[in-house]
């Protein structure tokens, strides 16, 4: 059992060393996510402690940090595949991370972002792979675009059947996003049967489209996880065979 655990840990450590840059960027993304989660609920307290930062700046920094963290963890898969476009996007995200961490006086975040940016630049020549967009990603983009176009156009056409009236494309797009996400702020209320039917159709289309997009996007990661699991099982099987041979020799 001890040999098995040591071999699995060694395998994981070897993978992390091989993809050290990917590990750093995803770790920085997680750090930014945690920072954003901490900043948002304690914005008032952080503002009072620092004194010179207003609550609105702290909230903005928290939201920005959370969004950056999500994007960095996502782009980490592109860094893993050594995509040229991933190198460029990550460079921009790291520069933005430095600026936002400076705004929040988070010097640890500034140092980590700067160090990883320097390391990323030193590995520039390794990023030669071109981006090949899979059909599943194109399908996900098409589904999202269709839902937004369907809702925005429909709400704009029957905008006089809502209270208050939906009279601009921005209002129609806003109400589409609110409806599809099932948040339901109640800004615009349907006052006719036609408006209610269209609202229900938008909700059903949005929920179905959302789950379709999730399935399309996570399927590659599920396959990747299955590949890793298969490799671990093979290593475990080899260790078990080695242990059984050792016992027979004794």
Question: What would your notes on this structure say?
Answer:
With 250 residues, the chain is mainly α. The chain folds into two domains: 112 residues, no CATH class; 115 residues, Helix Hairpins, CATH 1.10.287.70. It has nine helices and two strands. It has a two-stranded antiparallel sheet.
The CATH C-level class name of the largest domain: Mainly Alpha
- Poorly predicted ranges (pLDDT <50, ≥5 residues)? 6-10, 12-16
**Helicity range of the residues?**
over 70%
Total count of strands: 2
Q: Helical region count?
A: 9
What's the SSE blueprint?
Blueprint: H1 2-18, H2 20-39, H3 43-50, H4 55-80, H5 84-103, H6 107-122, H7 135-157, E1 162-163, H8 169-180, E2 189-190, H9 193-249
Antiparallel strand pairs: 1-2
Throw out a few tags for this protein:
250 residues, 80% helix, mainly alpha, Helix Hairpins
Summarize the structure.
With 250 residues, this protein is mainly α. Helix content is 80%, strand content 2%. Helix 5 runs antiparallel to helix 6, helix 7 (135-157) packs across helix 8 (169-180) and helix 7 (135-157) runs antiparallel to helix 9 (193-249).
């Amino acid at each position: 059992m001890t040999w098995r655990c040591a071999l699995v840990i060694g395998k994981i450590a070897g993978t992390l060393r091989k993809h050290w840059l990917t590990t750093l960027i995803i770790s920085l993304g997680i750090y930014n996510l945690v920072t954003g989660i901490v900043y948002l609920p304690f914005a008032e307290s952080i503002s009072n402690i620092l004194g010179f930062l207003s609550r609105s700046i702290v909230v903005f920094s928290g939201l920005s940090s959370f969004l950056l963290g999500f994007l960095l963890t996502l782009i980490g898969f592109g860094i893993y595949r050594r995509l040229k476009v991933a190198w460029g996007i990550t460079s921009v995200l790291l520069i933005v991370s430095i600026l936002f961490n400076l705004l929040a006086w988070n010097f640890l975040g500034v140092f980590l972002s700067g160090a990883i940016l320097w390391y990323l630049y030193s590995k520039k020549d390794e990023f030669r792979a071109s981006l090949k967009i899979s059909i599943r990603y194109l399908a996900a983009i098409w589904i999202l675009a269709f839902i937004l176009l369907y809702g925005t156009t429909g709400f704009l056409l029957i905008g006089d059947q809502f209270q208050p009236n939906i009279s601009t494309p921005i209002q129609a797009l806003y109400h589409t996003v609110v409806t599809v996400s099932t948040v339901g702020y109640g800004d615009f209320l349907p006052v006719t049967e036609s408006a209610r039917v269209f609202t229900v159709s938008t909700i059903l289309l949005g929920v179905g489209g959302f789950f379709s997009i999730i399935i399309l996007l996570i399927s590659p990661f599920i396959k990747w996880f299955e590949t890793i699991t298969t490799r671990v099982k093979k290593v475990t099987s080899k260790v078990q065979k080695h242990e059984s041979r050792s016992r027979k020799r004794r």
